[in-house]
Every structure is written in structure tokens, then in C-alpha cells.
Amino acid sequence: MDLHIFLLLLTLFLVTTRFILKRRVTKNQPPGPTGLPIIGNLHQLGPKPHCALSTMAQTYGPIMSLRLGLVNVAVASSPAVAQEILQRNDQAFANRPIPESVAAQPNVGDTIAWAPADPRWRNRRRVCTTRIFTAQRLDLLQHLRHRKVQELVHHLRKQASKGKSVEIGELAFATMLNLISNTVFSEDLVDSEFKSAGEFKELVWRIMEDAGRINLSDYFPLLKPMDLQGVRRHVAVSYVRLHKIFDHLIRQRVAERQSTRAAKGDFLDVLLDQCEQGDPSDFTVETIKPLILDLFIAGSDTSGSTSEWAMAELLRNPKVMQKAREELIQVIGSSNVEVTESDIPKLPYIQAIVKETLRLHPPVPLLLPYVAGHDVEVSGYTIHKGNQVLINAWSIGRNPQFWDEPLLFQPERFLRSNIDFKGRDFEYLPFGGGRRICPGLPLANRMITLMLAVFLHSFEWELPEGVTSQTLDMSEHYGITLKKLSPLSAIPISV
Ligand code: HEM
């Protein structure tokens, strides 16, 4: 065949296929902004996609569609639409698209956060909710976390005696890593004196950074094999090293269990019990490593940055800080009595501060993405099979339709209402909802509340010279978690 005729036929074929596909894909799609050729709406997301999407929702409504490169995305921005997705159609949206920075890890199918919602995932979730994150298990291991938090107090007292300021976010991140590592392995993985960053912290941090980068391969799947920005290659090194560290800890524990038979009762013991008892296709020394890694990645930065935002809000709102300290003194007593996790139920105001912080500063503002397993009707529109779905929890938590004076930091609002973050109140979803709700919620709640209570009970806090509660910068930085753009520095004063 003549080359020109061949090219003409090929062009006709491509144009027709594109037309048919586009019709199928856009039929009854939710409204949304018109995009540019090729990149679609990618350029409209800007550095703070949660804010840009919130503004767009004012024009296009609580369910809208965008095209990010070659990927169609539906965005929900109201409690009613979130409920339709997380509750009424939870089965259709049970799976997640896997970003390339996540797919780079060994055995990604054995994670909890990214594995398809198949029976193996259900089994791992079941073990998490019935054996790992239970009140009994968390109570059993609380002495380890308590010890870590006391070390933090010791460190802060030293800084206080020198009148030095501390970086709250960095300390909180390192402490959260150690609280999780003690809960999982009964061991510290980060230097408890906070002197050196430590390899483990660096590795977890590097994974976070790589995962937070915009990667073209996620929006143009054809580019995946080329890994043009090198994200996959770069992040894979950190994953492999972390797997090696876990491998060493796991093998050491397996040997200990064989020789002494004395159980520590930590998460690793629970998982190794499963390896011994359960179906080997679900739990083996190999397949528990991605699960353990998930706990560190999902739990440390989220909990650390929540603690930093809480302290920033308290430094901006001295009356709230004062009220919180009064509650602590009344319930616990003077600062030489130690706060423990078992005190948390007696501290409603501190709990309300944590809730209010998570309303204004949800660390995962768009939750984790979902993918439609088949065509689904939501609010009268069709979300087509394969389309991705985001829920703008940040926007919902700041919407004046659902919250009075939403931009004010007022923990009292949670004392007056029964709204909780357990996924049943769709106007407040910092931990998500439905079948993929955060399984680490009970641990996160304990760790953040304990750390905050200890910060406030043992110290008074001041802002460094030149910064006042009115000038404290509260700008956000959007990455894998929503953090403070300028790290919070504050001076502890021992009381
Ligand atoms: C302030 C702290 C935390 C926040 C705000 C948070 C938030 C979230 C959110 C929004 C999701 C997605 C839920 C959804 O898709 O509906 C999630 C999933 C997850 N979180 Fe958390 N999280 C926190 C702490 C933790 C901790 C401490 C752990 C474990 C140690 C953890 C483990 C996980 C895991 C494994 C998933 C994936 C669940 C799945 O896909 O089945 N998180 N988290």
C-alpha cells in the first residue's frame, strides 16, 4: 500500500477511535473546567491542589471532573457526595490507583494502603483491626511509648535550661517514628537523644519526598517504562534498604522466639504468630515487610505534622493554650506527675484540640485516591470504570455550610457536638471513611494526644524573638502530607 494512503488511514483510525472513546468517557460525566490539549487540567492544580480544587468546586459543584494528563479524575467536595462514595458505593471504590513512587517498592501487592481490596487485603485489614490496633494491644504496649515520650521531655528540659528554641515538627516526626517502632518492634529506630538524624529517619523521609513529587508517569501511563524524572529509580533504593533493615529485625526475632519462646506481644509478634498459624499465602516473613513499612510511612509524618499544627494553633491562640494547661493541672496534677495514655479519656479539652487541629489541617487533605471498579452513578452523574476519585476532606472541613466560623480555631465546637473522626460523620473525614478508613486511627489518636498533653503539661511555650501570635506564619506546604511551610520553632520553658 502507498505510504500516504497508509498514513491517511492511520490518522482516520486514530481520530475516530479518540472520538468514540471520548464520547464514551465523557458521557454524563460530572461538570468540570475545560482543559488544555494533552495536559488537561494539570496546570490548574498549582502548588496547593486542595485549595485549587476547593475554589473550582464553588463553580462546578460538589462533584466535578478533571482530566489530569490522560487520567480522568472525579473530585467530591461535600459530605453528601463523600457519603455516596465511601458508604453507598464503597465496593465500587474499594481499590486505589498505585502511583509509580509506590509501585517502586518490592511486593507492593502486600501493602495495606495500595493492595487491591481482595480477600488477602481483607485478611490483613482484619488482623490490623482485631489483633493489632485494638485497645488491649495498645494498652499492653503503652509503657514503651511512655518511655519514649519521657525521653522527649528529658531532651526538651535540656533545651529549656539553655533557653534554646526547638523545631517542633522535626522532634515530633522523630518521636512518632520511635513510638511506632517501639509499638511494632519494641525497639528504637531513631536516635532517642535526637542528636543525629539516623539512617532510618532519612530513608523514610526520602520516600515521603519522592512520593510527594508530581510524577508525569502517573498522568501519562505510556511514559511509565521511561521513568523520565527518575522517581522510580531513586525511591527504589530507599525501599530496598528499609526492607533490609526490617529483614534483619524480623530474622533476629524469629531466632529469639525459637530459643526463648518468650513473647514481647508487640505488632511483630502478632504478625509472626500469623505467619506460623495462617494461610502462608497471606503472611510470610517476606509479605509482612511491605505491611510494616506501610505503618511507618502512613503513620509517622501524618502524626508528626498534626502535632506541629496543634502547637502552632496553640501558640496563635494563647487562651486555648491556657485552658488546656489548666485542664492538665486539674486532672494530672503538677508537672512532676507524668501524663500517660490512660489519662487521655479524662482530658476532653485536649482531645477537642486534636480534633480541631485535624479539621483545619488534615494531613491527608484529599485522602488517598480511589479508582472506580465499574461505571457508577454518583449524584446523577456517571463515574466511569477506571476513573480516579478524590475526596477533598480539607475543603469539606472548612466549608461554612457545615461549620460555624470555619476558619477559627475553636476546640469548644467539639465539646458541644458528638462529631467524631471515625468515618461516620461525612463533614469531618481526616482519617477517611468506608472500608479503607485509616486502620491506624486508634494509635494515631493516642500518640498525638499524649505528645500534646506532655508538651503542655511539662512546659510553657514561647515564640522566638521577632515572632508573635499574630505574625506566626501558618502557610501550608502540599506534599505527601500537608505540612507547615515554615517549620515551627518554639522555646520550651520548664514548669
Ligand atoms: C494523624 C494521623 C493520621 C491520619 C490523619 C491518617 C489519615 C489516613 C487517611 C485519610 C487514609 C486513607 C483513608 C481512605 O482512603 O478513606 C489513611 C489510610 C491508612 N493509614 Fe492512616 N492516618 C494517620 C495515622 C496513621 C497511623 C499511625 C497508621 C499506622 C501506624 C496509619 C496507617 C494507615 C494505613 C495502613 C492506611 C491504608 C488503609 C487501606 O488502604 O486499607 N495511619 N490514613
TrEMBL record:
Family affiliation: Belongs to the cytochrome P450 family.
Annotated residues for binding of heme: 438
Keywords carried by this UniProt record: Heme, Iron, Metal-binding, Monooxygenase, Oxidoreductase, Signal
InterPro entries per UniProt: Cyt_P450, Cyt_P450_CS, Cyt_P450_E_grp-I, Cyt_P450_sf
Organism domain of life: Eukaryota
Pfam families: p450
Protein name as catalogued: Cytochrome P450
Repeat keyword on record: no
